[in-house]
Every structure is written in C-alpha cells, then in structure tokens.
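Anyone else keep sequences and structure tokens together like this?

Example one:
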Amino acid sequence: MPNVSYLEPGTDATGGFQFWSSTTGNVSSDSTFSKTGPRSIKLFNGNPSILAGVVANGVLDDAGRRITFWMYQTATATGTNTDLLRVQTAVAEVYRLDQQSDGKLSSRPIGATQVDGTTVITNNTWHRITVSYKIVSTTSFRFDVYINGVLEHSATAGTLTNTGGINLRLAIGNGFPVDTTRWYDDVYVDDGNDYTDPGDIRVTAKRPAANNTNDFDTAVGANPTNRWTNVNEVPLSETNGWQEGIISDVQENYTLEGSSVGDVDITNKVLIGRTAWIWAKGTLGGLGTPKIMDNGTETAIILTNSGALFTVVSTSASYPSNAAGIGMRSTNHADDTFLYECGTLIAYNPVASLICQSPVTSFIPNLVR
C-alpha cells in the first residue's frame, strides 16, 4: 500500500510557509477562507499579473507519486499554459498541469504530447485535483489527472525532455485576469504508482495540549505553568519556547490534542498518516545527539544554528496515543537546544471510506532550510 510522502494543511499548523521550501509572488496564509481547518494558501496574481506559487523540494519521485489537493479560484484563465501544478527537477520542468482559456485542464509533459481535458473548472467552487503518475523513461511515462475523483485524461505519448522530477510547485500563472485569486488546501502526496486517485484526503493540524516530560531548564520568553502554550502558537514564533542549556540528555515533550479537539474533529474518521514536526535549533548547530519525538518514538536529527523544520512522516491508521506525543530530546552537548513550536499533521478521509495503508515510517530531516 502507498506510503505518505508529504502533508501540508494549507498553513493551518504554523500560519506560514515553513512546510514549503520557497514561495514566489503574492503568497499568503489566509485565515478567512479555507476548505478544511482555519486557513488556506492564498495565491494572488496582482495587477500587473505575475506568477505566484509555492514549492516543496524533495517530495516527488519518478518511481510514482499521487498528488491531491483542493483548489478554488475566482476567474478562468484568459491565456494558455497557465500554471496549476508543476513537477520539477532542481532546475527544469518535467510536467505541467495548466488551465486553458476554455476553463479546462491540460497536461503538458514537457517535450511530449499535450493532452487537453473536457471538464470546465467552475469558478468560485472548491475542486479536488489529483495528478497520479509514474515515469520509467523519457518515452515510457503516464500522467493521469482526476477532477473530484473522476478520471479526466491521461498523458502517455511522446518523448519527455526531462526526467528526475523531485520538487512540487503549486501556482497561479500570469495568464489570468489581473487580481485573480486562487486558494489551495489539504495538500497530500504519497508514493502510489498505480495511477489511481487516493480519494478525498484532508489534512489537519493537532497541537500540544498537556505537559508530559518537561525537563528543558529555561523558558524562552513567557514562563507558563502550562508549558505547551509556549510551543503551540499560530503563527509560528521564536519569541516563546524552551531551552536546554546544560550538558544533559533530557526531553521536552507534550501530549497532543485529542482526535475531537482542535481545528477539526476527526473522531471515527479513517486516518491515513501523519507528520510529526518541530521548529528547533542548536546555538551552534550540528552538534550532539538531539532527537524528535513522535508518539513516544524518537528519531535522530541534526540541528542547524537557526530555527528550522524537522519532521517524521508516518503512514498509520491510528491516532497518536502516547503521552509523549510530540517534542524533542536535547543535544547532550554544550551546544544549547531550543524548541520553539511543535505539533502533528494528520491526513484523514472525511467520509470514512475504506482506505488501507501500511505502518511504514520514514524521516525527512530539515525539510525547510
């Protein structure tokens, strides 16, 4: 069964773009409009119109990926080849999903044969878009596009100019009427390679909600009895947090909100997977033996000397139940450890469809640098 590769809840977790590697143009976290939870990613092409987008590095692979997200826009493209999604290498495009001036979606495997869809994307309506693909070689590939769970078209013909796509970009192109806005929410990627649609998967953020093992010795900013309030802030902030400044091997971890608590009640929903995350640093960075805590299990990380995102991605149908739900272990070194924010993203199916996943865990260190 497919393993989760990447989750992003439309900036619900941090109120910003810490889970994205870069942004371009007019990009913001919108706290007034969303599909799931309190926020979504807002891309505004402005006047004059310019490209706006977000990029997540290292989350794709030619061996196969299923990418699904919810999208809402205020106007239809007036030009052609206007960005919705790109699969990219570090320097070049492999594939682009565009909207054409007739409102329909088109697959453009770069260098190969463009395939146009037949369904008009309705403005001012949420649509779930999926691109499910696998690339064997420049002449053996397949990109399947789904709209709201229905197969729209497949692109298989021609010769690709590039392979080796590792980066995902979501965007709104400059071929739209000026001042057009597009929102993205519930971004989900797994390593499925069978060209199927993974279904309606939503992503929500769960935050620290109770003290557990709390041995970091110094408060950063506020010094509350409810220590979790220093590390569950939205937007993310380094004003408050916890510091361990002694050469010791100690933990600072918390129990997560319950499944019914927080942004979205996911009680009795079918769970797909999760991403445990911390925003942390070491004064010097790269020293000692710090670890991230995910549902009672620790994984080694290498800190940097400025705040950065560290994640553990798991494919699991169970809600995190360990009292040590999220947090970290100190460096056990003279280099001070700082924990600023932390939490867990949960991917789930809102209608409790039958989805089977395997309990495989992978680690993606320092996704955002």
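And example two:
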Amino acid sequence: MQRPLSAIILGIIGLLASPSPAALEAKAYIDRAVALIEADQHTLARTYLEPALIDYRLNAGERSRAYYLRGYSFFSQGLYVSARKDYYRALEFLPDNPVVLSSLGHLYFEGLGIAKDQPLAVELFRKAADAGYAPASMRLGFAYLTGSGAEQDTPEARSWLEQAAADGSTTAMRQLGLSYRAPLADPPDPGTARQWYERAWEAGDAEALSHIGFMIEAGELEPADEPARSYFERAAEAGSGLAQTKLAHLYLSGEDMPQDVEKARELFTAAADQGHAGGYLGLAYLYESGTGVTANPQSALQWYQRAAEAGSWDAQLRLAYLKLQGGDLQSHREATRWLAQAAASGIPKALNDYAWLLATSRFDEVRDGSRAVELAERAAESSRTPVYLDTLAAAYADTGNFEKALAIQREAIGLVAAEDPDLTAELNEHLAAFEAGEPWRE
C-alpha cells in the first residue's frame, strides 16, 4: 500500500538536524501545516508556513522542509510555477534532499510549470533514488520502462521498480506487471505479470485487478480462471476508476451484457468523482450525444475540459475540434494549445491532427510549416495511410516545397481504397491546389 503523505513528508526528518529550542514555535507552525495539507486545506497551510519561512532560528534542514511543504501545497492546487520556485528554494538549503529532488524531477518529466526536460528529470530521480527514496526509484523505473528521458531498458527498469516495490509502492508493482507483458517483454511472461498485479491487489491497489481483466480480455492468460468482466467488477467495487470506466463502456455498448445506459452513467460518475479522466470523458460523451441524459453542449464542454486537463489525449483532441468550430483566431489558438498537449503523447493521430492545423490554418499566427513537417513525418512513420500522407503533403506545401508535396499527395491518392470515393475527391482537390503552386487552407 502506498505510504500516506505524512510518511513521505515526515520521512525527511531523519535527514535533518533536531530543531533548536528557540525554533520550536516555528516547528509547531510547520507541523500544523502538515496536518492541514493532509486535510487538503492547502491555502490555510501556507498561512502557517509563512512565519516559519522567515524565522531566522530554523536550521538549513528545517527551512528546506518548510519550503518543500509550501511547494507541495502549491503543486496540489495545480500551481506548478509556484511549486517549482519553492522546490528550488528548498534545494538551496539542503541540496541533496531526495524528496525535493524527486518532486522537482516530476515537474520536469511532465512539463508542469516548466519546459519538459525528461533527461534532466531522470538525473534528478537518480540522485533521489540513490539516496534510498522509493518514489524516485519508481519514477526512474518508469522512465526506463517507457524510454522517457532515458534509453528504454526493461531489465534496468525492473531493478529500480523492485526497489520501490520492496518499500511498498503498489504503483511500482503494477509497472513490474506491465514489464512482463508484450511488447516490453520478449518473450512475454504473463504468469509473472499476473503475480505482480496480484501482489499490488493484496497490498490494497484496486486498479491492479483491472489489469488482470485486460490481460484475460486480450487472451494473454489462457485458460482464464474467470471472465474478464468479473475482475473489472471486483476492481470497480473496490474503487478502481479504471475498472469503473471500463464497465461503463461495456454497459453503454451492451457488449457481453444487457445494455444499461443509466448504469453506465453511474459508473462514469463514480470514476469522475475519483478524478479519473475516463470518467470525465464518458460523461462528456453522454452530454454531447444526449445518451441517457438531456443533451447539453455546455456540460459536455466542461467535462471534456476536465478530462483534457487530467491528461486524456482523447479529450484534448475532442476539445480542440470543438474550439475550431468557433472559426476565429482565438479559437484556433486555443485549439493549437490542446493539440500540442495531445501530440506530446506521441499518439500518431494527435501528431497528424496537430500538424494539419499548423499546415493549413488560414491564420498566419497559427501556421508553422516546418513544425508541421516534423510532426507529420512522425505520424507517417507509424503508418503510411492516405490521411497521414495528405497532412504531410500539406505541410511541405506550406513550406513552399511543392515538388515534395505533389509526390507525397499522389502516393496518398494511390493508397485510397476504391470504395472510398469521397476521400479520393478530397485528396484530388488538395492535389490541384499544390499543382497550382498554392498551399491548402482550411
């Protein structure tokens, strides 16, 4: 089971010198702030930290802890720039503070309040992990497992994840389960993957059962002892937002069970109440389509916004499409922002759609042909489909390279299936513009 916040925060104390008697009042303020942070009263917590931060009697370790706590309170409210500043102040007083190093690395890894720099994040995680801080070991293992900021290395990932798992990190246990599945393991070892998921479940991680359900659904565990749905149901009852979202989709589609739109809405709502992006996205769809509820475009937009902010690339794309319906410059700018976030996931569709806007927007302030070429090339490398090639051709046309654009567009047209005359007509329309030496504009 994951350690509570108090264990993580108070775990720094062993690194610090004992407070002087004269500093006990400031220490009492800090302890009160810890209690308020655990109660999610972050703004009030910062009022208690203010007098402690300026108390000259605090030693370096105590002051580092106080700045970290204030930074954590900012982070918890999504105020990432302020969190970053306080984390750096904390390191000024205790440069090797592993909790702060790991927390700062998380900001760089995700690009929160600062330009994303995953290689730097990996180095910060390594310093904290070398000091024995388990959450940093988990993050470092994840970086190696996914090849984010470091060369993908499954054995190295397992080494760090096992250290974090030994400290009780159920997230690390789940990541270890993933490491024994394709494509990360060659050959896959589904039995060992399942063992790690079961360990996470036994340690109190409801989401772990969901992953066993997905393995059964994908045919990775044969023969299966139970239907996949039973694992999703048990995980959902235990509070897994992932399982609740999965079950909601099954009820919505009527797949392997009677269709029950009201039950689907209840499950999406339960997942949303836990802050799960899939719950937000499901509710957005219901309100946009009027499925089981009265259609409400404004409510749909609000749920898409929450899902996008929670990191769902699906929602980020959908929100971008809705913004583009506005048709004005501000709408295109907002769409660009969401498409950029979606493209950061590396999903080919997100790369393609972002490239298309950068190549074809009628607003000069939005277009960036060179960036569009880069993104479209990445999408086309994953799958050389007519649509992705069409985007790549439009990107080259925007840079003035019509020779390249024409060659790629003709290749795209040659790949269109005979039963799709509408797409052929659309691509030929773009081709005619390129033949006339004109870029395509939406």
